[in-house]
Specification:
It is built from three helices and six strands. The chain is of the alpha+beta class.
């Protein structure tokens, strides 16, 4: 893959990672008057472009993710289709994500302190329960990747 690569209103700058169903990039959105915004752009892989069930799951993820408001969870900025490819643009948070911290600890045969894990889980659960608006047309589902380790900063 040759980067930078144009993608809809974005320019893909750097590939952050690829999973089984999507890939994530640092991307730049440019606008009038020299406006620029660096984002994290998640786009589905071409193999899933025609999979209705997967596209519905991706749309559910976008809807639920857009409801989350927390300083350590990347906010949704945009959702759309460029060409035939669905994407989700997220706030790009500088720093180390939780997945990288866990990987580093695993390589050193270490783990997070149980008290810290409990604190993180409690804070996220409390935030979700007390502050998240409930959608009127859809009940929250546990199958979202909105709070996956790569979406959280440390």
């Amino acid at each position: 893959m040759d980067l930078p690569e144009p993608f809809g209103d974005y320019e893909l700058i750097e590939r952050l990672g690829v999973g089984g169903m999507a890939e994530t990039f640092v991307a730049m959105r440019r606008g009038n008057g020299g406006f620029e915004q660096r984002v994290s752009l998640k786009r589905i892989l071409p193999a899933f472009a025609g999979d209705r069930e997967f596209l519905e799951m991706f749309l559910r993820e976008a809807r639920l993710s857009a409801l989350l408001r927390h300083g350590h969870i990347a906010r949704v900025l945009d959702f759309g289709i460029a060409g035939d490819t669905h994407y989700l643009a997220l706030e790009l948070i500088d720093g180390t994500d939780l997945r990288a911290v866990l990987r580093h600890l695993r390589l050193r045969a270490e783990s997070l302190d149980a008290g810290l894990v409990s604190f993180i889980a409690h804070a996220l659960g409390r935030h979700w329960t007390l502050r998240m608006p409930q959608p009127r047309t859809e009940k929250p589902r546990a199958s979202s990747t909105a709070t996956s380790p790569h979406r959280m900063s440390c």
